[in-house]
Amino acid sequence: RGLKKYFDVTGGVFSKKVGEVKAVDDVSFTVKEGEVLGIVGESGCGKSTTGKALLRLIEPTAGSVFFKGQDITLLSDEEMRKTRRDMQIIFQDPYASLNPRHKIAKILSEPLIVHGIGDSKERMKIVKEILEIVGLPGDNAAKYPHQFSGGQRQRIGIARALIVNPKLVICDEPVSALDVSIQSQILNLMEDLKDKFGLTYVFIAHDLSVVKHISDRVGVMYLGRMVELTENESLYGEPLHPYTRSLLSAVPDPDPDRKQERVILKGDVPSPSNPPNGCAFHTRCPDCMDICKEVRPSFNEVLVNHFVACHLYEEDGKPVPPEQFKATK
Ligand code: SF4
Ligand code: MG
């Protein structure tokens, strides 16, 4: 609720604070047990920072994170360590996230040791089991990370996250660093594991096509803000935010009967250290109105379970359903 993460920007010989980057700027959403919530946006939009702040791997500047009803931003380090058994993360770059000097057995037993699970013999058994579960023979435990391909390393990254039997897994672009041919194998594996262990995923990606099949709901972020959040079918079928529309129009649609208008965005993403006033998207938005340059739109539920932050669907600060907007335009 109201999650913010601001980073100081320092400069000069004395490294004085000269500004701040609002990496995550007042973001609120809910993740339902058992669902896959996709979070999508271009690089620098704050999606990874949001994911890490959910686990307090990055401390939020403001806001709350409720896990099973409890605000975990209030927990002590020791309490947080225990809670993290239920909340794990899979990183984007499987190579950078595995210590090259450690054998897989050591890498995978570390989380077990941290959470006091089993003696060394039991831990070895669990390590071999989890390797088999992610599709690697158990005897791989004796190898080093460099002996595996990118896809295999991401299987190990997944094994490390799942070995403590978590409830929630933050997947921070887990397939972005992989060859396209390997991506779908890993996505399928992650879907199978989700069903098998009853997991909940927050699945972060920079591309709407990656989360299309795996997500139940999708949130779209732009410059530190959530601009649209809804169920999968509505997001892909009836996107409301002009930014989502532009992202979707860049994804080729195989259905020849569906007319696709290509929306070409002007300009680049503005610097997050100096975001535009009002709606952060107004410098690139094809529908920009005067109010957009001054007033930040609030994040409203304009249709059932369909949230959007855009003045097109707002009048006098109140949400206006899209049909009504179309009728008046
Ligand atoms: Fe475009 Fe205005 Fe909506 Fe922002 S608020 S997305 S500038 S129409
Ligand atoms: Mg990232």
Describe this structure in words.
There is one protein chain. With 329 residues, the protein is an alpha/beta fold. It folds into 2 domains: 167 residues, Rossmann fold, CATH 3.40.50.300; 97 residues, no CATH class. 29% of the residues lie in helices and 21% in strands. It is built from 10 helices and 14 strands. An 8-stranded mixed sheet has the order 6-7-8-3-9-10-12-11. The protein has a two-stranded antiparallel ribbon with strand order 1-2. Helix 3 runs parallel beside helix 5 and helix 5 packs parallel to helix 6. It is globular and about 65 Å long. It starts with a strand and ends with a helix. The mean pLDDT is 92. Bound molecules: iron/sulfur cluster and magnesium ion. Magnesium ion binds next to loops.
Helix count? Answer: 10
Radius of gyration over alpha carbons? 21 Å
Biggest sheet architecture: 8 strands, mixed
Tell me the series of helices and strands, N- to C-terminal. Answer: EEEHEEHEHHHEHEHEEHHEEEEH
**Count of individual beta strands:** 14
Q: Which term fits the overall shape?
A: globular
**Poorly predicted sequence stretches spanning 5 or more consecutive residues:** none
What is the class of the largest domain in the CATH system?
Alpha Beta
Trace the largest sheet across and list its strands: 6-7-8-3-9-10-12-11
State the share of residues found in helices, binned by percent: 25-40%
Give the N-to-C terminal Cα separation. 33 Å
The CATH architecture of the largest domain would be: 3-Layer(aba) Sandwich
Bound molecules: iron/sulfur cluster, magnesium ion
CATH superfamily of the largest domain: P-loop containing nucleotide triphosphate hydrolases
Quaternary structure type: single chain
Strand content: 15-25%
Average pLDDT taken over every residue = 92
Number of domains: 2
User: Class by helix and strand content?
Assistant: alpha/beta
CATH topology of the largest domain: Rossmann fold
